[in-house]
Design brief:
Helix content is 30%, strand content 18%. A hairpin with a 2-residue loop joins strand 25 and strand 26. Helix 5 (199-217) packs parallel to helix 7 and helix 15 (399-411) runs parallel beside helix 24 (655-667). Bound molecules: adenosine-5'-diphosphate (ADP) and iron/sulfur cluster (SF4). Iron/sulfur cluster (SF4) is lined by residues 323, 326-327, 346-352, 364-366.
Amino acid sequence: MNPNYEILFEPVKIGPVTAPNRFYQVPHASGMTEANPRVRAAFRATKAEGGWGVVTTGAVSTHPSSDDSPLPFARLWDDNDIRSHALTCDAIHQHDALAAVELWHGGAAVMNRSSRIAPYSPSGIPWAATHVGFMGQLRPRVMDQQDIRDVIGWQVAAARRARSAGFDIVYIYAGMGYLGYEFLLDDYNHRTDAYGGSVENRVRFVRELIESTKDAVGQDCGVALRISLEELRGKASDNFASQAHEVVSLLSDLPDLWDVKMDSSPTDCGASRFRPEGAHEPVIDFVRTVTDKPVVGVGRFTSPDTMVSQIKRGVLDLIGGARPSIADPFLPNKIREGREDEIRECIGCNICISSWHDGVPVRCTQNATAGEEWRRGWHPEKVSPAASNDNILIVGGGPAGLEAALIAARRGYQVTLAEKAPEFGGRLRFETSLPGLATWGRVRDYRLYALQKMGNVNLYSNSEMGVDEVLGLGHQRVAIATGARWTQALYSSLEIPKGELKGPGVYTPDDLAAGKVPRGPILVYDFDNYYLGGAIAESLAGQGMSVTYATPAGHASAWTIMTNEQPFVHQNLHKLGVDITTQALLDSFEAGLATLSNIFTGELSTLEVSSVVIVGLRLPADDLYQSLCDREAQWQGAGIESVERIGDAFAAGALVHAVHSGHAWSRGLDNPDAENYLRDIPIAEFPPGPVIN
Ligand code: ADP
Ligand code: SF4
């Protein structure tokens, strides 16, 4: 280990328990609940195995009045939930890490769609989300004194169950718009009783939650407070630098650990396009000066130098990681073993967060094994050895081809990777040149760096493969990873792609990637609705061109609501003077005039532009595969046993899909069961009964 990094491996006392090092996997949503307890246990335990000293759950509801359905959330509502969590704790403990549980009451920020209990809130103020999937129409009740006692009682009961399950650290949650936070903020808390008014009164509910939890389990478990400080830091206080300073000072040494964060998912889990590593520091930097208790915070830390600096400068005691621990569960061990150059760094794309919004177990662009540890038996660092002497040819060095090559090579196969372009990286060659997307180059760099060090890999760039070349090489296993191409298809009012727009001045992202420069003014017409249309508009406008962005959706880059990017896409386009037209279909483009119609009303409008860039339908570029299939009769003679498509050449998708596809293909070599995965089922110890707290 680099001696500078030794400080990262010092133990830290958290109340009655001791974290073995400073790597702390903070609570983060995994999309895993009591519905898939084995998937969950393996996912969390893999991080403990990789060296994270503390591994925490995502939000664990204390009572049916904290019900986030249909979003996935875990529970400790009754004793039937204990064994499911015990499985996770035991698995974490096997690797000598501490297990922590984020007990959670959502207050007015949950809609209780399943339990149908009127949500709890300090003053009846609802959380009005802009995302239709998060909106609800049942407004919250105003909590009376009994309600306050009940919520505290549910926290205590859940804390006791957590201790029975084996958790070492128990949380109180006062962040991200949830109930504890709602009491802290005067925007939510208009109470005139002892729980409202002055900051001291507004802190009372959180104080009582901490005190009661400590009374119940504090002998055995560390008691952590997770708190959002962004809004509070902006609010003036009479005697302190801000209300955040006042709140932390009032509670100072009461919790055993401070877990400090931002207020909303887009700022807390900022996408790398818009937020650098360590972006929380200006908000949370003061906490350590106000408390003697250890402080953990996050910032998408992947550089050990940044981590050491956070500790030495007195910002944090424990290095919190959510996304970095998903992208590389073995990050701590790699630092400890002097292998920091092998860290698979998070790219900050927030696909992991989109999994939670989708209501499914976590997916990760960089780590194809995330969520697959138990059900497919995929380990992030281990692969089964090659089961034959087959030679492997992979055509196309984009994310799918690079991942397939790496996994096959790690298994010990002899691998040839052929890429027609001068550089590897596929779509990333162009996309990483767009504003904010350079960090995504880590997908290419991590894999290429590893491949270049391996003796059983031949990497060929500038090597376009045709049918004759593939047959001539005669490798037994061939993967076609030739990617996809953007089409000039338009979009219909039935919300499906329709006929192509041909003619001069019409471009696709592939044209821009090939170096063509559209003449301004430009219309970027986007019905792909992920990042690329917005990023291209931002890039062209940044080069001084006049740009209009139009989409049939309701927002620019509409799907990026799932990845926390959308507010910043709009902000950046606005700053650059890009006109945004939503609910728009592009009908035609002729003689410098684009005609748009409203997708709902059909109302027509025109726009004078010289060029149109269509970011819409993407289809597999699998011509090579099809040509090879036409000559299947020659495969055997050439020594070829199989030819398969992977990544975008099979089904066009996001980077995450390409990497997963490449990974799965190589795991599947000489493995007839590769397509199957295990189905998890809930653990129930007792017959179903009422929730008793
Ligand atoms: P994916 O996301 O599935 O990896 P990409 O489009 O990012 O797909 O990458 C596909 C890669 O395949 C590109 O780098 C492209 O240059 C390369 N490629 C396409 N056709 C050939 C070919 N015939 N021979 C070698 N490389 C090819
Ligand atoms: Fe990081 Fe993206 Fe993986 Fe999330 S999905 S952990 S942001 S690389």
